[in-house]
Write a structure and sequence with these properties.
By secondary structure, the chain is an alpha/beta fold. The chain has a single domain, classed as Leucine Aminopeptidase, subunit E, domain 1 (3-Layer(aba) Sandwich), CATH 3.40.220.10. It is built from five helices and six strands, in the order E-E-H-H-E-E-H-E-H-E-H. The protein has a six-stranded mixed sheet with strand order 1-6-5-2-4-3, with helices on both faces. Strand 3 and strand 4 form a beta hairpin. Helix 1 packs across helix 2. The chain starts with 7 loop residues before the first strand and ends with a helix.
Length: 170
């Protein structure tokens, strides 16, 4: 069900503890989850990691094409694996974030996503600037018509974690 006045709420803390139906995981396209948030997902959802590694081995994981993993148990979160890097050693590209958001917007209803928890895509280990990515995420996720929790990156100032900051254009 879509919410007409869905809000993007700015959060800090552990995304893995979010009550959202679907959690967004930042991934690369080579099957490695060795650092940061992805490592937390690997440890919390080993079946998801096995599926992801298999998809990477068969070259199904591509920049700009996040995919939804649904667990076997209905009481677990759904995971949206969102490629933010091509290789774990590479920097993230803003163009990959934009095309991934396009893909998410095109598939969100089909996937029946009801709520999302989204990290600062490409900002931590990917090297992108929150001042550039944050406003983009705030605007684009607000179009989805569902409740979204947007998690500011570690080290973001209190000002950078406000709607006023994210509403401005860079």
């Amino acid at each position: 069900m879509r919410h007409l006045n869905a809000a993007v709420t700015i959060r800090s803390g552990d995304l893995l503890r979010s009550p959202a139906q679907t959690l967004v995981n930042t991934v690369n396209c080579v099957g490695v989850m060795g650092k940061g948030l992805a490592l937390g997902f690997k440890q919390a959802y080993p079946a998801m990691f096995e599926d992801y590694a298999r998809r990477c081995a068969s070259r199904e994981v591509r920049p700009g094409q996040p995919y939804l993993w649904r667990p076997a148990h209905a009481d677990q979160h759904w995971i949206l694996n969102f490629p933010t890097k091509r290789h774990w050693r590479s920097r993230s590209r803003l163009s990959d974030i934009v095309s991934g958001l396009d893909w998410l917007e095109a598939h969100c209803e089909e996937w029946r996503i009801e709520s999302l928890a989204v990290p600062a895509l490409g900002c931590q280990n990917g090297g992108l600037r929150w001042a550039e990515v944050g406003p983009l995420l705030y605007e684009r996720l607000g179009r989805l018509g569902i409740p979204v929790e947007l998690y500011a990156p570690l080290g973001a100032s209190p000002e950078e974690s406000t709607e006023e900051f994210l509403r401005r254009r860079i």
